[in-house]
Each structure stands twice: as structure tokens, then as C-alpha cells.
Amino acid sequence: MALTIDDGANPEVLGAYLRFARDTGARLTFFVTAYYESWRIHRDALRPLVDSGQVQVGNHSWDHPDLTKLSADAVASQLRRAKDWLWDNFGTDGTPYFRPPYGRHNATVDRVAADLGYTVPTLWSGVIGDGVIVTEQVVAQMARKSFNQGAIVLGHANQLSVTRVFGEYGQILRERDLRLVTLNDVLIPPG
């Protein structure tokens, strides 16, 4: 199961996810909205996890607009700024994965993204439900519903409630004999 984490609006939540990865060995994929200060604050903690392959980063745009409402040039600017920022800070640009904000993309967005090397618009099959303010109980309930073999689960590094259910995440994963993987682990053939 791939747990993918978007945005990064809250530095405390991003830091908690990084501790979760470090302390448990969890493999995660972060879709970085590069505008958020959280990524700069936690760059030094995240970089070794990215370098080791335990954590993967992908492009979630510069500042999270609905890309389908932008011109092709503006889409390119959003993705290119984030791509350059990822490279400068983590030594990778996240290609071939990008997650369009709100999951919204169209032929223009996909073409522009592909021209920049982002050939895999990455959506999801399950959600934690933490894209808005929610209780710990809702996050845990959504995790129980979404954590399944082969799932790509969408979470966010925005709401503190999610940080208080990491123990329950571990319990669900053990009960279902699931292991967390990055997108590269499952989508890139070994070679």
C-alpha cells in the first residue's frame, strides 16, 4: 500500500510524518507543494530519507492552484518552479510523478506535465479524509476503510489530528499484513 502525503501546509504535521517514517521504517511518498515553508524547515531531516529511497517526493505544484483553470504557460510555470525547487533541495525533481492539485487535470495539463518529464499523473484509490479539519476518529475510520492491498492512499501534512493516529495506522497495517511502499517500489519495474 502506498501512503502518499500532499501539501505540507503545517510544519508540525510534516515533522511528525518524518519522525513516523524514521522511527518505523515506513516508506512514504510526499507530493510537495513547494511554496509551503514546512519543506524548507524540514529539508535537512527529509533529505537523507529521500537519498536512501525510503521517502520519495513528487511534484504537487508551486502553490496549489487548480491547474485546469490556468493557461498552458501558467501550468508550466507552476510545475517548473516546483521541479526546480525539488532538485535544488532534494537532488531529485520527482519525475515521472505529479499529483495535480484537487486531482484535477485535463489534456493540456497532462501535455505540459509530460513535456517537463511528469508522465504519471498520480491520483488515489483511498483517502484519509484529512484534507479538511477532521477529528482523530474520522481519520482513523477513513484509514480503516482505505488501507488495503494495492491501494494508493491520499493524506495531507496539514491537520494535527492525523498525527495522533499514527499508532492506529501501525495497528491497521499489522492486522491486514500490509507494508507501506513508495510509488517507485510498485510502479517502476526492478532493473
CATH first level:
Alpha Beta
CATH topology: TIM Barrel
Roughly how many Å is the radius of gyration?
Answer: 16 Å
Look at the structure and give the mean pLDDT: 96
Strand segment tally: 7
Strand content: 5-15%
Task: Describe the structure in your own words.
The chain has 191 residues and is α/β, with parallel strands linked by helices. The chain has one domain: Alpha-Beta Barrel (TIM Barrel). Helix content is 43%, strand content 14%. A 5-stranded parallel β-sheet has the order 3-2-1-7-6. Strands 4-5 form a two-stranded parallel ribbon. β4, α5 and β5 form a beta-alpha-beta unit. α4 crosses α5. The protein is globular, with a radius of gyration of 16 Å. It starts with a strand and ends with a helix. InterPro entries: Glyco_hydro/deAcase_b/a-brl, NODB_dom, Polysacc_deacetylase_ArnD. This is Polysaccharide deacetylase family protein. Keywords: Hydrolase, Metal-binding. It comes from Nocardia panacis. Pfam families: Polysacc_deac_1.
